[in-house]
Amino acid sequence: MVHGEAWTLKEFFVYPNEYIYWSIQIVMYPFMTGLVAGAFVLSSLYHVFGVKQLKEIARFSLVFSFALLPCAPMPLLLHLQQPLRNHHVLMTPHFTSAIAAFGIVFLTYGMIVASELWFVYRGHFVARALHLRENGRGVVDHLLAILFSLLTLGAWDVGEEALHRDEKAVKVLAGAGIPVACFLHGYAGFIFGSVKANALWMTPLMPVIFICSAVVSGIALCILSYVAVCQLRKLLGRRAAARDDLSPGDEPGGADPAIVALTARYLLIFLVLAITLELLDLIFRGYTAVKSWDILRSVIYEKDFVKIFILQYGLGNLVPFILLSLPRLTIRRAVAGTLLVLLGVFMMRWNVVIGGQAFSSSFAGFMEYRLPIVPESMETFREGLGGALLVAGMPYFLFFLISRVMPIFPSRQNY
Amino acid sequence: MITRRTFCKQALLVAGGTVLPLAALELFDPRRLLAEKEEGAKVRWVFLVDTHKCVGCGFCVKACKIENEIPYDAHVSRTWVERYVVTKDGRTLIDSPGAARDGFTSSKIDQNSAGMVEVKDEEIAKAFFVPKLCNQCDNPPCVQVCPVGATYQTADGVVLVDRKWCIGCGYCVMGCPYGVRFFHPVYNVAEKCTFCYHRLHKGMKTACVDACPFGARQVGNLLDPDDPVTKVITSERVSVLKEEYGTKPQVFYLGLSMEVK
Amino acid sequence: MKNHVWRPLYIALALVAVGLVARYLLVPPDFGVHERGYMYGWHRKSNEKEWEAVRVKYRTGRSCIPCHRDKHDDIRNSPHAAISCENCHGALLDHPKDPVSLEINRSRSLCLRCHARLPYKASLRGSIKGINPETHYPQAECMMCHYPHNPKRPNPKREVRS
Fold first, then answer.
1. Which pairs count as long-range contacts for B110-114, CB under 8 Å and 24+ apart, including other chains?
2. Which of A139, A173, A205, A379 ranks highest by number of CB atoms within 10 Å?
3. Contact B140, C40 (CB under 8 A)
4. Between A91, A111, A166, which is nearest C23 by CB?
5. What is the pLDDT of residue A229?
6. Chain B contact for A10 (CB, 8 A cutoff)
7. Using a CB-CB distance cutoff of 8 angstroms, which residues of chain C are in contact with residue B32?
8. Structural domains in chain B, sorted by start
9. How far is Cα A55 from Cα A46, in angstroms, rounded to an integer?
10. Run of H or E residues at A202
11. What is the ipTM of this complex?
């Protein structure tokens, strides 16, 4: 079977070689990069712009951004027909292609986030390493001591001056990271926006739209995960308190509604920007009505109406906009709102990537994408529901691992 | 005094410096580039399709698939033939069942999931066939977007794919406005019409040209003024497909109609 | 070094160096910018030779004539003269070495490629003699009545119609 045949349904006239070649993983790719970029921008709000109230969520979102990072190229690897040749992009980059710089931009960005984390956590690494060296027992502690010693990169100085330097470096890196994060994602938009053969994709607004919706989705996921982790900690803390018979004042509190409300405000700003640009694009296409408009109109207003106007704009944008902008935001309302925002951004990616292939480039027929749910082969797993869930679940697994080494909340323990 | 740390550092620097050859930094050599450009090209392969002559027998598609080892029953093809039926009430029905590998043997028009459409003889205003293949564009957008340099244009104008270097991202497939590219079902890399590069280099014509009984397809060298194809292109009214994309296609058509997509 | 702040940068530089060494080792030596410049000619030069080396399967009808002169004489002056032998008999390859014999395709679908009647006046198809395959002796092989190498002549081996 030809690649793409398993999930493509053709209607009317479609060129014989046309199939939906860019499927669910290419939807996941901008979605995941968007989350990375958004989470980083959120953490930079504290580090660069000194929004003090965001201190707690800033640290959280930085670590989360790092956990999301390896999940951005993952969908690409699952999508490639020759995944083992992925290094060719770094070996012989062809910079006239929008994809060529991906490896370089991505690695640069990864280095920035990793360095920033190192500066944030260096003091912790040193403390942990020293503590484990002195008090460690058994093989595990010994190995952990080695790990933390390695993580210090040999910089053991935790004097006031050295820590101050760390802070300064964090600030610089967070500042440098914002344009790189925006570039990383705006550039994902450019990958689509520059395809002149695709009538739906080709617009110079695409990178800007992508950045705005990226920040929206990143902030939304951070709020959501922050609330989830806080509640989880609260639950565990309560259990531990009951067990150890500690005084109730010691247990960790839940998510701070003030932080959530403030973060939600930033989310709203970017949400408005994203919607404005998307609507501008739609209106412009309708008004200029060039050759491709006939087929685009039937895709947008007929074939994909539910996906675009109900799921994306309605449930994914309008409803959360109302939920988040009504005064006295509760945690519960924020969770509902951010969940819907994530749905909205995911649907936006879907409607761009899959919607862009919903019509033949002959403009005389349509293609429908049938997401493979039960994997019958490796191909339908990789580019089906299974692969998408794998990509979506991976950040949480990585986050769990990373947060073992870099605790996201100030600990009560003293080393 | 040499501490262990400074020693390690310096040793690493020296080792790194010797291992890293300068050549690794070179992206390309401008002098070599210039030298190669100065040699003027002598061949530019182009194609001429006379749609009046095409009867939709599909022998070209069959020959292409076998000659170029595209699995015979796979639903992709380097070349194909489209049928256009314009009805008197202004509808345009297009199809290319199985890329027309077995020709057009029925008057029913295949509309994929919308079923077969029968058009009565007396309702037909005009109907004709249009063979399609890679346009070997002068500004190939598929080559522009390849991130790794796995697809490229040769000096004689043919766009090829390096099967050993292609990563299979599909960006070239998305970048082609003509839908000529696909993934090879066996090699799992991007695949496209090569103008039968191996045949042209042996002085032969492409498999589809040799298979066409009606002379609807012709291949020639645009830089040779005596080539019959060149003569037609330079002296007659020819058109190309989707000129608006700025790709400068090099497959020229005689008798194209406005309905042709 | 006094300042520990640069340590992540050293690691980054080390990674870049590793990348460049890998690039030197993994990229084929003939990979570079060729005739069409960086935009269109960035490739591995030896790949062109690989494409040139593809085996020719359709060797055109000329090579058939020495051995099959009778058939050639039959078809030469018929309306079917333009049809290449390989269209109906398959690709020549290394025949008669490999394959020893080529296909003799008697199926109706072969003839119908041109002779299923389609009234398309704007193309040559409209002026080819055609039949409606559903009503024109649907059970019969075309060859029972028509001689493919010269359709103007009735089939010499014509079988008795019942």
1. B111/A11, B111/A12, B111/A13, B111/A365, B112/A9, B112/A10, B112/A11, B112/A12, B112/A13, B112/A14, B112/A365, B113/A9, B113/A10, B113/A11, B113/A368, B114/A11, B114/A12
2. A173
3. yes
4. A91
5. 82
6. yes
7. 32-33
8. 45-136+194-254 (3.30.70.20), 141-191 (3.30.70.20)
9. 6
10. none
11. 0.89
Is the CB of C17 inside 8 Å of chain B's CB atoms? yes
Q: What pLDDT does A225 receive?
A: 84
The set of long-range contacts for A49-56, using a CB threshold of 8 Å and a minimum separation of 24, is A51/A262, A53/A258, A53/A259, A53/A262, A54/A259, A54/A262, A54/A263, A56/A256, A56/A259, A56/A409
Task: Tell me the shortest Cα–Cα distance from B37 to chain C, in angstroms.
Answer: 6
- Mean pLDDT across the stretch A2-12? 94
Whole-model pTM? 0.89
Residue B224: what are its φ and ψ, rounded to 5°? Answer: -105, 110
Claim to verify: residue C78 and residue C46 sit in the same structural domain: no
Residues C25-40 pLDDT 10s: 999 999 999 999 999 9
Subunits adjacent to chain B (3 or more Cβ pairs under 8 Å): A, C
Q: How far is CA A362 from the centre of its chain?
A: 34
Q: Where are the domains of chain A?
A: 25-194+375-407
Q: Which candidate from B66, B124, B165 shows the least CB-CB separation from C91? A: B66
Residues in chain B closer than 8 A to C95 (CB atoms)? none
By C-alpha distance, the chain C residue nearest B147 is: C42
> Does C153 fall in a domain?
no
Residues 189-248 of A with CB under 8 A from B: 191, 194-198
**B115 part of contact set with chain A, CB < 8 Å:** no
The boundaries of the domain holding residue C9 are 4-52
CA diameter of chain B:
101
